[in-house]
Design goal:
Layout: E1 3-8, H1 14-23, E2 28-33, H2 46-66, E3 69-74, E4 84-85, E5 87-89, E6 102-103
Parallel strand pairs: 1-2, 1-5, 2-3
Antiparallel strand pairs: 4-6
Helix pairs in contact: 1-2
């Protein structure tokens, strides 16, 4: 397994997501943050700041636990349109294409 998409949402704990990512033995991980709102990266509200802190901790934990490189961070599925992944974990998975690789 090499390219993995990790979908971060409100429904799954970060520890569960990390375990799922580690089981895939990825070399590269892209993280999709769903449910953060369109401007969570620039929003100065407490909720957005907490989300940014959570994501920063998660990215570091992914690299530490798996040895994989986090190659990207996306805020919507539209940003990943046409990208291909060997595995997708976390969040509700909606993909197109055959068994592998998966395309968003």
């Amino acid at each position: 397994m090499s390219d993995l998409l990790a979908i971060v949402g409100d429904g799954q704990s970060d520890e569960e997501l990390l375990n799922e990512i580690a089981r895939g033995h990825p070399r590269r991980v892209t993280v999709l943050v769903e449910g953060g709102g369109a401007d969570w990266g620039a929003d100065e509200s407490g909720r957005a700041k907490a989300l940014r802190d959570r994501i920063a901790d998660l990215l570091a934990a992914i690299e530490r636990r798996t040895g994989a490189v986090v190659v990207g961070l996306a805020g919507s599925r539209d940003q990943l349109r046409g990208w291909r992944f060997d595995r997708i974990v976390g969040g509700p998975v909606r993909v197109t294409g055959g068994p592998a690789p998966l395309t968003i």
